[in-house]
Write a structure and sequence with these properties.
It is a single chain. The protein is α/β, with parallel strands linked by helices and 273 residues long. Helix content is 37%, strand content 18%. It has a 6-stranded mixed sheet with strand order 1-2-6-5-4-3. The longest helix has 29 residues. The radius of gyration is 19 Å and the shape is globular. The chain starts with 11 loop residues before the first strand and ends with a helix.
């Protein structure tokens, strides 16, 4: 993965607006003001592509098929742009990766990018928690401020009526309490396979919360095309059944014509490999 902050991160804009639930909980609203900037989009496409396959791996993986790099990515790695459920999987993967970028480059978490490279069925979503992010205050020493953040993302980039996607994200976040241990193990395994042993060992810090307690934050994010943002509908989101509702962050991210952006990013990621 890249080590510098991608330029597309500057397209996140704090609107200064928020939505309040019926219980007075705050929902942060961010606008993703993407532009037709060739350089930024190309750099972003490279960053995006390497979630699925590192650039120095593609030639080895494609050689048996006789595919070009573009063909390999489109036929084997990326969700299909038109055959169901490919488009919805694209929207979901894109949203999860964008939320991972938000957590890493705006909220300053460490976010291992291991979720998509191990996919065996391109048109299906990966099982487990959507995005796990970490903060370790001091290397080699546990502190109560060490933090595990688990975020669920749901998208709606088409249609005419706003769907309860933030509620869907909250409901999925409830399940993270039972999926957490497996998702932590999945990250650790993938880091081990990639010989990132120091990073793999860092996951140990969060695998035994009884003996090594830490702060845990939950997150629910709904991503919309801007024309589908309905504050009244979104305000009906309920967190009553969430076991970590006192540490639950609610976020809405919206931008213009987001599904067109999704397809364009996948196209660039394949064509520019």
């Amino acid at each position: 993965m890249i080590s510098t902050i991608p330029e597309h991160i500057r397209w996140f804009a704090n609107t200064g607006k928020s939505i309040t639930t019926s219980k007075g909980e705050n929902i942060e609203v961010l606008e993703f003001k993407h532009e037709s900037d060739e350089e930024v989009l190309s750099f972003w496409a490279k960053h995006f592509r390497q979630h699925y396959c590192l650039d120095d791996e593609i030639d080895f993986f494609r050689q048996g098929y006789g595919y070009s790099k573009t063909e390999y990515l489109n036929k084997i790695k990326f969700p299909d742009p038109s055959r169901a459920p490919g488009p919805s999987t694209r929207a979901g993967d894109f949203s999860e990766i964008l939320v991972a970028d938000y957590l890493e480059f705006i909220l300053n978490y460490w976010v291992p990018r291991t979720r998509y490279g191990s996919k065996t069925v391109s048109n299906e979503s990966t099982k487990g928690c959507d995005t796990l992010a970490f903060k370790i205050i001091r290397d080699g020493e546990d502190t109560p401020e060490d933090t595990l953040a688990i975020f669920e993302a749901k998208a709606q980039f088409s249609g005419k009526k706003t769907n309860p996607r933030l509620q869907d994200a909250v409901n999925d976040s409830v399940k993270d309490q039972t999926r957490k241990a497996e998702s932590l193990n999945a990250i650790k395994q993938q880091l081990f396979y990639k010989k990132k042993l120091q990073e793999a060992n860092s996951i140990d810090r969060f695998q035994n919360p009884i003996d090594r307690p830490y702060n845990e934050i939950s997150g629910a994010v709904a991503l919309f095309s801007s024309n589908l943002v309905d504050p009244t509908a979104i305000s009906k989101t309920s967190t009553n059944n969430h076991p970590n509702h006192n540490n639950l962050k609610l976020v809405v991210i919206h931008g213009k014509d987001m599904m067109n952006l999704v397809h364009e990013l996948y196209r660039r990621a394949a064509d520019e490999a």
